[in-house]
Write the structure tokens for this entry.
Amino acid sequence: MKKICVLLFVLSFSLSAQEFDKKKVVQRLAKIMNENYVYPEKGKAMHDLVLSKLKSDAYSQFNTEQSFAAALEKDLRSVINDKHIRVTFNSERAKAIRNRDFGPGPESNGKFGFEEVKILDGNIGYLDLRGFMDIGMAEDVAKPAMDKLIKSDALIFDLRQNGGGSPSMIRFISSYLFGDEKVHLNTFYWRPSDSYSETWTNPEFASETKPDIPVYVLTSDYTFSAAEEFTYNLKNLERATIIGETTGGGAHPGGPSIITSDFIVNVPRGKAINPITKTNWEGVGIAPHIQIPADKALDKAIELAKLELNN
């Protein structure tokens, strides 16, 4: 009988601790979204929704951290389908954030997103870029890659497996593709500071600039965030031909915040404002000039490049 009582006490304590943790996570998450999400009215709506569901005990059915995090993400996205909103439970990632270790991680394999750099037949430069890493970390890889590619007669940027990254790399690469005058690429609005920032090309970054070299950008439905910004910038500046599939539709930059324990939320704190369209690609993605299955996009780009170079 004594053992049964002890067991019941332990179970009761564990359940109480679990519910207490859920309450703490929800209250902290509500506060983060209310104070930081790029659209204040949507942040407030997320705040009210998760607190109301907590009050109604709607989260009691989720017995693991992962299922609880997934439920919270689903609820936040029900207010606005912003794919940059992500809620996860990840001890290693939380530790890295606490230590301010925002490096590219082991997945980069020292390539910093520059998966493949080569010159194809016909002197066509090809870059398979898997991420836009911060140029401050990736310059030793990015600069020799672009210095090599800019010597070609046409350029193909393959972003079909690129999920995003830093505007600083967008600025760096784009600086090779325009002339001696700086070009306004993008503007960002940031809600927490209620401020704007702009990105421009800088010809001093490039060993050589070629404002007339034919440029092709390959996309898929996986192409997202910073990869979309690069695509959107070049499309609206009429500087590239976009080939492939409509992109994922994420134009709200931000970053991770620790909620509590090892729960993390990625909070979209800003929005892109293109200087030409005065809007962005959020929720709709970027339609290519040539709509074609992603696995056929490279062949099509090579075909078009050769035709253009032979004319």
About this structure: The radius of gyration is 23 Å. Residues 1-18 have pLDDT under 50 and may be disordered.
